[in-house]
UniProtKB/TrEMBL annotation:
InterPro entries: B4GAT1. This is Beta-1,4-glucuronyltransferase 1. It comes from Paralvinella palmiformis. Coiled coil: none annotated. It is a single-pass type II membrane protein. GO terms for molecular function: glucuronosyltransferase activity; metal ion binding. Keywords: Glycoprotein, Glycosyltransferase, Golgi apparatus, Manganese, Membrane, Metal-binding, Signal-anchor, Transferase, Transmembrane, Transmembrane helix. Its cofactor is Mn(2+). It catalyses: 3-O-[beta-D-Xyl-(1->4)-Rib-ol-P-Rib-ol-P-3-beta-D-GalNAc-(1->3)-beta-D-GlcNAc-(1->4)-(O-6-P-alpha-D-Man)]-Thr-[protein] + UDP-alpha-D-glucuronate = 3-O-[beta-D-GlcA-(1->3)-beta-D-Xyl-(1->4)-Rib-ol-P-Rib-ol-P-3-beta-D-GalNAc-(1->3)-beta-D-GlcNAc-(1->4)-(O-6-P-alpha-D-Man)]-Thr-[protein] + UDP + H(+). Pathway: Protein modification; protein glycosylation. The keyword Transmembrane applies. Pfam families: Glyco_transf_49. It is found in: Golgi apparatus membrane.
Length: 438
């Protein structure tokens, strides 16, 4: 009489194979878990490294910055400024399928600043998932400090290092930028102390400076915009001021919007003659940034948020039609819900194609008519303005008359005269256009 077999001996080969498959999957999952824990541990260690490692890492990138500053400068068209492109270069997109899709439908945030606003890059990089291109204007006496600060930014903020390209502009009348290895690097015992060090090095040192006040040196805002917009890894760009923050997920939301909209067209792409307006607001200082449209609307009801330039120049933003925008249904998706016909003196911020948008006129410097001149030409050139429903921009702080520098009125009057000349020139540049800037 045969003894009964134990249950596991009665398994078929197919059952054995299934069990082995489950066992292999479990081992792979366990292996991934161990790798994740190891990576988390290494990441934690990197955040608490001694100064030696910080110095070692900055020494790796320092020669690259030094070479760019010493040998890569070119002169602008006016012969008044030196330009150094890609002192630090974004590595945001690869050439794989995802990278190509991001290039085709993605948006680069284009901005500019003077040295006293470099610290805004920290917050900006946390709120924008895509590439950023920034042009920085550097007076002579601050060049060494700026380079040092960029090195610390490079080390302590990996996401900033990945996404942000930095270009430098300085007057031809001053000596070439000096390059010096960061003297304050050894003071940083951990990257978590970085924000405190940055505040000491940047904000306190530059705090006495006011916007557009550079000891006789004119701030070339439109040149800076063109410099930052010249070499972009995406087909679309959004030009903003550095103290303006995009709504969370705007980058990825626009990628999805552009892909969906493009697939629905005969050409398979967005209309190159349409720009997509992003409504802009002012946020009272000290108030937390809204995370979505619903929270922004709630802050609006409380008087903590208001449309941009609401007190200073309401007619400059009113054509956006904030009442219509406020009453649109809130959702996670973007749509171009309505179009606005441009009229003077509307100054919208918008996403557009880098291949078709007009460049900024670099004769405009200091305060007044620098942005509106480009918007005016965009209108004359036949573009249409479509407002996005679930996207917004937030300026940090309410705009007040007291926040402006001395000389603003004189600068504005000079640029007003230039703007009149500029509009006459557009009639010659676009002889077939029936549109005008009024």
């Amino acid at each position: 009489m045969m003894s009964p077999r134990t249950p596991w001996l009665r398994l078929t080969w197919s059952q054995v194979v299934v069990m082995l498959g489950f066992a292999l999957a479990f081992l792979q999952l366990f292996h991934m878990l161990l790798l994740n824990r190891l990576e988390a541990r290494n990441s934690s260690m990197r955040q608490t490294e001694a100064p030696y490692y910080l110095k070692k890492d900055t020494q790796t990138v320092y020669p690259i910055i030094e070479h760019a500053i010493k040998s890569s400068r070119i002169m602008d068209a006016s012969g008044q400024y030196n330009i150094i492109y890609d002192v630090m270069q974004s590595s945001a997109f690869s050439t794989n399928d995802t990278g190509l899709m991001m290039k085709q439908y993605g948006v680069t945030l284009v901005t500019h600043c003077s040295v006293n606003h470099i610290h805004h890059l920290i917050q900006l990089s946390h709120h924008w998932q895509g590439p950023v291109s920034v042009a920085i204007f550097i007076p002579q006496e601050y060049s060494s400090t700026v380079v040092q600060s960029l090195l610390v930014l490079h080390y302590c903020m990996p996401h900033l290092r990945k996404n942000i390209s930095i270009h430098l502009v300085y007057p031809m009348t001053q000596s070439p930028l000096s390059v010096q290895f960061p003297s304050f690097v050894p003071e940083i015992s951990r990257c978590r102390d970085f924000h405190e060090v940055l505040d000491t090095v940047l904000q306190q040192q530059f705090r006495p400076m006011q916007n557009y006040a550079f000891e006789g040196q004119s701030y070339p805002n439109n040149l800076l915009r063109n410099v930052a917009a010249r070499f972009l890894p995406t087909d679309y760009l959004l030009v903003i001021d550095i103290d303006i923050i995009p709504s969370p997920n705007l980058f990825l939301s626009f990628v999805d919007f552009a892909r969906r909209t493009s697939f629905a067209t005969e050409t398979g792409s967005l209309d190159a003659q349409v720009v997509y307006v992003v409504p802009v607001f002012e946020l009272q200082r000290g108030v937390e940034l809204p995370q979505d449209k619903s929270s922004l609307l709630q802050l609006w009801k409380q008087g903590l948020v208001r449309p941009f330039y609401y007190d200073l120049c309401w007619k400059c933003q009113r054509p956006t039609d904030y009442d219509t925008w406020r009453n649109l249904t809130s959702s996670a998706d973007l749509h171009n819900q309505y179009e606005v016909v441009w009229k003077d003196p509307w100054e919208p911020f918008y996403i557009g194609s880098k291949y078709s948008l007009p460049r900024y006129d670099e004769r405009f410097k200091q305060y007044g008519f620098n942005r509106i001149s480009q918007v005016c030409e965009t209108h004359i050139a036949g573009f249409r303005f479509a407002v996005l429903d679930n996207a917004f921009l937030v300026h940090l702080g309410f705009k007040t008359q007291e926040g402006y520098h001395q000389g603003k009125e004189m600068e504005q009057e000079l640029n007003r005269q230039l703007f009149r000349k500029f509009k006459e020139e557009l009639k010659i540049k676009y002889p077939e256009s029936a549109r005008r800037c009024y």
